[in-house]
Specification:
binds guanine, 21 helices, 497 residues, 42% helix, elongated, binds zinc ion
């Protein structure tokens, strides 16, 4: 890996970074969206992407130019930047994805890399093999060996300042994805797309998407800029960014517009089904659904593509702002509510607590507990780890949701989902969390797990838990030897209230 990427801010495994693209003479802020440009079908001109949407980077398919009578010579003569009238960074794909779907690959990596270089690409792609999900293990291994050979070949091609992608494959085998990530990071290539995830996303298999990404990232390490190849629906940006993806390419804005489909951050609507437009972009501010439907085909496609881009860029900005404030996981929770498969994706992300904790900042904006999943956030794990190290003074200690009690040597606060902590830490992150009065069982159970951690770390101390009517499932999480008092059954206030 060459050193082209700097991380500026982090939240969960997500980050705001800067990718230096020397051949374009620009630095791209990530997370970044790369609209897919198809020269044959383009509705929104690249120049408009730059002027209206602030696009800093886009992606097109080198192989389309390679095989096109209409565009090949123009691209070679003028270069992509002049052809597109676009001054940002241009990434090109090699066509391997299309070729894997539609036919045999008839170019090799040196030739297609050289061609991408010659049409002025800033970030090029070798010929990888996108092994689909659920492939047989032997096929995934065989394909991966070919992809790894292509990456090694790419290292040997002299491409000047052009950056080169190192796609990470391995189908749905986490160990292969991890090994592929480690191999890719060991090359001197620059950007690391996680490949062949399009079928997972098309089938709403978000949990497996998260597993594939986190496995790849275990191999790649935190310093690698990661591109989620073919991910363009704004609904999943927050989740993918929180899992550690930095770049996204979107063909969705255009493909969906062609089918009269209207993107929202909660999913996709059909224009025919809309009585109102739930968006304030210029297109939606200027049209009713009836007016949009009455537009001629080309014009309607253009307007829908622009709406789709507005929604997509707006969500990316929302994700970045949440990341800056440390509220990215809260945005992921909100987005997860849009579809049960997204809940699975979020739960899969929380399964990777180690992966999240390594990069999650130790202090940020107040923690909002907004669902049962909040109890599994990295902040809760980190607090439990900390309980192993916090000094306990005294032989009898009350851990309570209620008042201090002088009958004990010490009183600590007890707050779901975190568990116990010394009163002095009450105003520190994340223990100053905003928590609803009506909590789910998961929050009490997590707090009880915290008590268990503290009790394990301090075997000589007698702990008593003072709780307000905790559910039996949470009390079951307490270790033997911890006493309990149900404060909701006591008549008056404690002795020093
Ligand atoms: N576009 C979407 N997925 C892929 C992939 O796995 N490899 C390449 N080269 N392009 C893609
Ligand atoms: Zn709109």
């Amino acid at each position: 890996m060459r050193d082209r990427f700097e991380i500026r801010d982090q939240d969960a495994a997500g980050r705001i970074g800067e990718l230096e693209v020397p051949r374009a003479g620009v630095t791209v802020e990530t997370p970044a969206l790369l609209p897919v440009i198809n020269p044959h079908l383009q509705t929104v001109p690249p120049a408009e992407m730059e002027a209206e949407f602030g696009a800093e980077i886009l992606i097109t398919n080198g192989y389309i130019f390679y095989g096109s009578d209409e565009f090949r010579d123009r691209a070679l003569d003028e270069g992509l930047h002049d052809l597109f009238e676009f001054s940002g960074a241009i990434m090109t794909d090699s066509g391997s994805f299309q070729l894997a779907e539609y036919g045999d690959i008839d170019v090799d990596t040196p030739e297609i890399l050289q061609f991408q270089h010659d049409i002025g690409s800033d970030i090029a792609t070798p010929v990888d093999i996108p092994t689909p999900p659920d492939a047989a293990r032997e096929q995934a291994e065989r394909d991966l060996a070919v992809t790894q050979e292509a990456l090694e070949t790419a290292e040997g091609v002299d491409v000047g300042e052009m950056l080169v992608n190192a796609p990470v494959q391995g189908s749905t085998y986490p160990d292969l994805r991890e090994a592929a990530g480690a191999h890719a990071a060991g090359t001197d290539l620059d950007v690391f797309p996680v490949g062949a995830v399009v079928p997972l996303m098309n089938d709403y298999r978000y949990a497996e998407m998260v597993e594939v990404v986190t496995a790849a990232k275990r191999g790649l390490g935190p310093a690698a800029p990661v591109h989620l190849f073919g991910a363009g629906h704004p609904m999943m940006f927050a989740l993918a960014v929180a899992a550690g993806c930095d770049l996204f390419d979107s063909a969705a804005y255009a493909l969906y517009a062609r089918d009269d489909r209207y993107l929202t951050v909660r999913g996709t609507e059909h224009l025919a089904d809309l009585d109102y437009l739930p968006c304030s972009c210029p297109v939606c501010a200027d049209h009713t659904p009836t007016e949009l439907r009455a537009e001629p085909d080309d014009r309607r496609e253009y307007l829908l593509a622009r709406h789709n881009l507005h929604v997509t860029y707006a969500e990316l900005r929302r994700v970045k702002q949440a990341l800056r404030r440390g509220t990215l996981l809260e945005l992921v929770e909100q987005r997860a509510r849009a579809h049960p498969a997204m809940v699975d994706g979020y739960r899969a992300l929380l399964d990777e607590a180690d992966h999240l904790e390594r990069t999650d900042p130790t202090t940020k904006d107040a923690f909002f507990h907004v669902s049962a999943e909040s109890a599994r956030r990295p902040e809760v794990h980190r607090h439990h780890d900390r309980l192993d190290r916090l000094p306990v003074d005294g032989e009898t200690v009350l851990l309570t949701e209620g008042e201090n009690n002088r009958r004990f040597d010490a009183t600590w606060r007890l707050k779901p989902p975190f568990g116990p902590f010394p009163r002095a830490l009450s105003k520190t992150y994340p223990l100053n969390a905003e928590v609803p009065d009506r909590l789910e069982r998961a929050a009490y159970e997590a707090a009880a797990d915290g008590v268990a951690r503290l009790a394990e770390a301090n075997p000589g101390v007698a702990f008593t838990v003072g709780h307000f009517d905790w559910p039996p499932s949470a009390l079951d999480h307490l270790p033997d030897g911890v006493d309990t008092i149900d404060l909701s059954e006591e008549d008056g206030p404690g002795d020093d209230a």
